[in-house]
Design brief:
The protein has 7 helices and 14 strands. By secondary structure, the chain is α+β, with helices and mostly antiparallel strands. It has 2 domains: 71 residues, lambda repressor-like DNA-binding domains (434 Repressor (Amino-terminal Domain)), CATH 1.10.260; 138 residues, tt1808, chain A, CATH 3.90.1570. It has a 6-stranded mixed beta sheet with strand order 5-7-9-10-11-12, with helices on both faces. It has a two-stranded antiparallel ribbon with strand order 1-2.
Length: 245
């Protein structure tokens, strides 16, 4: 089949790119680039896999000619890196989570916090390095999770590579938004604890609170209002972040 024939067959079957990726095993980003014409010379094996799906036709996870039940596949780091550049997501345990553009208030707080931490590290000649989104973190060091925390600090330079951070940062800050609040408060909070993050902050702009988890001590968080300077525990409380001047 030519690419044009595959496009026509896709329309006939009513498939999405995600369905074609799931049924064929071809990474989602690769499927999109082939059908959008970005990939001019796809590999022969890739074309074969796409043809098989489009010729035989899966419906609702079932193959028409032969009844085969398929389990929804988990996405991988390869799928993540094959997504279009303008499609910003996080990959957590094989599932993609869309990331909305941050608000101005979000960015202002992130910039102020970053400056405070960077200045403290420089003034104390610290060996830790700070990063802000969009910096990739391969949290579990596996192929099913790649995240972009709003702000974080890494104190083990061996975790820092040219492509991403491999392993758990020491300190992470997520600034909550309506679209990410549940993910940051539930999924990420547990992921960070299990991965070995030492300290995790959730900054709630709406309620003007900072929820602080010190995973080395307790899973019960401490909650600060914006009117109270918040101590950074990994620096033995020598650094305090002010959210209101």
């Amino acid at each position: 089949m030519t690419i044009e024939e595959m496009k026509e067959r896709k329309r006939e079957l009513g498939y999405t790119f995600a369905q074609i990726s799931e049924y064929s095993g071809v990474p989602l980003g690769t499927v999109q680039k082939i059908f959008n014409g970005e990939t001019k010379s796809p590999r022969y094996e890739t074309i074969q896999a796409l043809e098989k799906v489009l010729k035989q036709g899966y419906r609702g996870g079932l193959l028409r000619e032969k009844t085969v039940y398929r389990v929804k596949r988990k996405y991988t780091v390869d799928d993540y890196y094959n997504l279009p550049d303008d499609h910003r997501v996080e990959l957590i345990d094989g599932e993609f989570y869309d990331m909305a553009a941050p608000s101005i208030k979000h960015q202002n707080i992130l910039m102020d916090l970053s400056v405070d931490v960077v200045n403290f590290i420089r003034q104390n000649k610290g060996k830790c390095s700070s990063f802000a989104a969009p910096t990739d973190v391969q949290l579990d060091q596996d192929d099913n999770t790649m995240i972009q925390p709003d702000f974080f600090v890494v104190c083990d330079e061996k975790k820092i590579t040219d492509k991403c951070i491999v392993g758990a940062p020491d300190f992470i800050v997520e600034i909550l938004s309506p679209s990410t609040k549940e993910k940051d408060a539930r999924i990420k909070a547990w992921k960070y604890r299990d991965a070995g993050v030492r300290e995790y902050w959730m900054v709630d702009l709406e309620k003007e609170k900072v929820i602080v988890y010190l995973y080395e001590e307790d899973i019960i968080p401490t909650i600060y209002g914006f009117d109270t300077p918040v101590p950074v525990h990994i620096y033995d409380d020598k650094l305090h972040i002010k959210f209101k001047n």
